[in-house]
Structure formats: structure tokens, C-alpha cells
Amino acid sequence: SAVISQKPSRDICQRGTSLTIQCQVDSQVTMMFWYRQQPGQSLTLIATANQGSEATYESGFVIDKFPISRPNLTFSTLTVSNMSPEDSSIYLCSVGLANEQYFGPGTRLTVT
Amino acid sequence: DAKTTQPPSMDCAEGRAANLPCNHSTISGNEYVYWYRQIHSQGPQYIIHGLKNNETNEMASLIITEDRKSSTLILPHATLRDTAVYYCIVRAVGGNQFYFGTGTSLTVIP
Fold first, then answer.
1. What is the spatial distance between Cα B91 and Cα B98, in angstroms, rounded to a whole number?
2. Are B102 and B7 in contact (CB under 8 A)?
3. Mean of the pLDDT values across residues A2-22?
4. Other Cβ atoms within 10 Å of A55 Cβ, number
5. Which of A15, B69, B105, B106 could disulfide-pair with B25, CB 3.0 to 4.6 Å?
6. What residue in B sits closest to A43 (Cα-Cα)?
7. What is the mean pLDDT of residues A81-91?
8. What is the mean pLDDT of the segment spanning B23-27?
9. Residue of A nearest to B95 (CA)
10. Shortest CB distance from A105 goes to which of B2, B42, B103?
11. Do B46 and A101 touch (CB under 8 A)?
12. Which of B41, B44, B96 sits opposite A103 (nearest CB)?
């Protein structure tokens, strides 16, 4: 299994600003994933982040809006850029190990 | 892309078995069926997965029909702490991404 922590746990930000969310894993993993969960909705995959390569984004998500870093096998960041109220969501990171995915607790973002 | 269909909500009496159905009629031979749940304000939690045989672990049982087009997650003795949204997901063997559908909101009633 894997233990995943995220920082910050929540934040309130003004529109037009950017927020960087950190994800730390307690073991080395190749694959990390970032999800968005809008209020009352299911999880939507934003991108897959493998160490040593560019992140792969899902349809509807672009690097300019959601730049991702993956500097090593235990850490990743997701930046939500030029935020608008529509970006208010929970952002979750997860890691793939064997046949399972383990999820962090999420970062609750409110944009005013 | 989500390939599953689940009822949006269900109720279950505490102590009774909760049977959560999932339709995955377009599943291919190399795709697993996974179940996760998300308790309010937490990240999703793995429950169980299977390919074609029925599976059981300490949390639940997974029953997959012979044609693999549907499955049922069984929580044998539901407790109030099992109140959550339950997601049924299909994922290719060797695949990495999980695509979540809309899930079933299970409420366990005292």
C-alpha cells in the first residue's frame, strides 16, 4: 500500500491567481495521477505524471492551465493557473501500485 | 471514459447485506472490474477487483456474471460507516488510468 499526503488540505484563493498543490508519497512509485472532483460530481482524471517524462493530459485539460511537475519518484505538484470560480473543486492525487490506485485526502479549493 | 452504469442511490438497513449492481455491457476480455468507495470528504478507497471469477476479501464480495456484462458488490453486513459513494470501474489489464463513472450513493439506515 501507499500513504499519500497533500498540501494544502484546503485553500481559498482569488480569481486570477495560481495555486500549487503538493503530493507526497511514502514510497517510490512510477505512476502518479491528478484528479478533479467538482462539487457533487464524480472524479475526473486530469493527467498522468510519470517521473522523467512530460505529463499526459486528458481531453479537456491543458498544460498551460494545469502544469504538473514530477521531480522524483515520491513527489509531484499540480498548479491551477489563472483561477476562476469554476476551478473550485477538490483536487486529488493518486499513485498506481501493482493493480491498485491509492488516493490522497484531496485539496479543497475555493475560488472567489 | 466511463464504461459503467450504476443506480444513482440505494438504501440498506444496518446489519443487512448491501447489494450494489453495476452494468458494464461493453467490457472486453482484458478488462478488470474494480470497486472503490468514497466516504464524504475523503479520497476514494479500494475495495475489491476481479477479472472473471468471483472474489471475496475482508471488506466485500464481488460477483461477476458469466458473460461479464454486469457485476454486484456485496457488503455482507452493512454498518453506518459503509455509507459512501461506491464506484464501479473497468480497467484494462496492464492499463494504468482509472476512469470514474457517476457511482452509487449508498445510505445505511439504522
1. 6
2. no
3. 97
4. 21
5. B69
6. B100
7. 97
8. 92
9. A99
10. B42
11. yes
12. B44
Contact A99 B100 (CB under 8 A): no
pLDDT in tens, B57-98: 999 999 999 999 999 999 999 999 999 999 999 988 777 788
C-alpha grid cell for residue B11?
438504501
Given a cut of 60, whether residue A62 has pLDDT beyond it is: yes
Instruction: Indicate the average pLDDT of chain A.
Output: 95
The stretch B90-108 carries a mean pLDDT of 88
Give the bridge partners for A99, in sequence order: none
- How many Cβ pairs closer than 8 A exist between chain A and B? 46
Grid coordinates given for A1? 500500500
Enumerate residues 6+ apart whose C-beta is below 8 A from A18.
A79, A80, A81, A82, A83
Residue of A nearest to B43 (CA): A105
- Sign for the CA dihedral angle at B50, B88, A74, A29 comes to positive
- Does B46 contact A102 at a Cβ distance shorter than 8 Å? yes
In the prediction, which pLDDT does B109 show?
97
Contacts of A33 in chain B (CB under 8 A): 96-98
Q: Do B44 and A45 touch (CB under 8 A)?
A: no
> What cell does A13 get?
484563493
Whole-angstrom Cα distance, residue B53 to residue B63?
A: 8
- B100 close to A (CB below 8 A): yes
Distance CA B110, CA B107 (A): 10
Q: In angstroms, rounded to a whole number, what is the distance separating the alpha carbons of residues A42 and B105?
A: 11
Task: Measure the CA–CA gap between B68 and B32, rounded to whole angstroms.
Answer: 10
